[in-house]
């Protein structure tokens, strides 16, 4: 029986209303874009699988959260079950950029004592003439938060896949180092039926050495 995925990561999109979270997800999962988008009510779900390296497929369960304050009590319940988050702001709306730190702080507080892996996304890069946030400013914020920064456009399909792939790869690399692992009662990371074991590098070397020694003694 073919296994569809070895790991499942739950990823949440965060940011103010109208920054284009739903547009990013629809472009990434369905390859479509529409100029007309209904506001997200509560939380919507999307999914797509990525082959992060040969033989390792990761299913992304993607949560699109409402940016409006009145839905905040609903969306906060989803924070703790996510391993990664895209902090999205609108390059043409400076207030959405200024609110990024608030989103980051709120989510980080809810997931304590654990941490979430983030990537900062400046969306609507196709609207260059209306730009209100300089790239240097966004890169400085990303550096302050200790995260990567990517500029995207769902309309032009620019860097959309790259944003999700970078975040997925960051989570995967932390798993390989042993800093993120599956745990009881948490759905941020789940293992498939044929999960490829991930170990910290030193433990992996010890395992390989033990196998070599065993084969020599046969």
What features would you describe in this structure?
This protein has 218 residues and is of the alpha/beta class. 36% of the residues lie in helices and 23% in strands. It contains 7 helices and 7 strands, in the order E-H-E-E-H-E-H-H-E-H-E-H-E-H. Strands 1, 2, 3, 4, 5, 6 and 7 form a 7-stranded mixed beta sheet that branches. The radius of gyration is 19 Å and the shape is globular. The two termini are 34 Å apart. The mean pLDDT is 84.
Mean pLDDT: 84
| Secondary-structure element pattern, one letter each | EHEEHEHHEHEHEH
Q: Judging from the principal axes of the Cα atoms, what is the shape?
A: globular
Helix and strand content put the structural class at alpha/beta
Query: Number of DSSP strands?
Result: 7
Low-confidence stretches: none
Instruction: Tell me which oligomeric state these chains represent.
Output: single chain
What does the radius of gyration come to? 19 Å
Question: Largest sheet at a glance?
Answer: 7 strands, mixed
Helix fraction by DSSP (H/I, runs of at least 4):
25-40%
The N- and C-terminal alpha carbons lie at a distance of 34 Å
Q: How big a fraction of the residues is strand? A: 15-25%
Total number of helices:
7
Please render the helix and strand layout as text.
Layout: E1 7-14, H1 21-30, E2 43-53, E3 56-65, H2 72-79, E4 84-90, H3 94-98, H4 100-111, E5 117-123, H5 135-145, E6 148-152, H6 160-176, E7 189-191, H7 201-216
Task: Summarize the model shown.
This protein has 218 residues and is of the alpha/beta class. It has seven helices and seven strands; from the N terminus they run βαββαβααβαβαβα.
């Amino acid at each position: 029986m073919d296994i569809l995925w070895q790991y499942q990561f739950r990823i949440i999109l965060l940011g103010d209303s109208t920054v284009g979270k739903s547009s990013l997800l629809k472009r990434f999962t369905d390859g479509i874009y529409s100029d007309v988008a209904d506001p997200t009510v509560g939380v919507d779900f999307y999914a797509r699988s990525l082959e992060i390296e040969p033989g390792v497929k990761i299913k992304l369960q993607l949560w699109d959260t409402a940016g409006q304050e009145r839905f905040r009590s609903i969306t906060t319940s989803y924070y703790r079950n996510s391993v990664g988050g895209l902090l999205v702001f609108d390059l043409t709306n400076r207030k959405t950029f200024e609110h990024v730190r608030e989103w980051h702080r709120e989510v980080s507080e809810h997931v304590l004592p654990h941490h979430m892996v983030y990537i900062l996304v400046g969306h609507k890069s196709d609207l260059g003439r209306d730009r209100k946030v300089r790239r240097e400013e966004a890169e400085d914020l990303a550096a302050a938060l200790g995260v990567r920064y990517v500029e995207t456009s769902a309309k032009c399909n620019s860097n959309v896949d790259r944003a999700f792939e970078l975040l997925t790869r960051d989570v995967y690399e932390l798993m390989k180092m042993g800093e993120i692992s599956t745990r009881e009662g948490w759905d941020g990371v789940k293992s498939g039926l044929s999960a490829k074991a991930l170990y910290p590098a030193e433990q992996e070397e010890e395992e390989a050495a033990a196998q070599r020694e065993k084969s020599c003694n046969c």
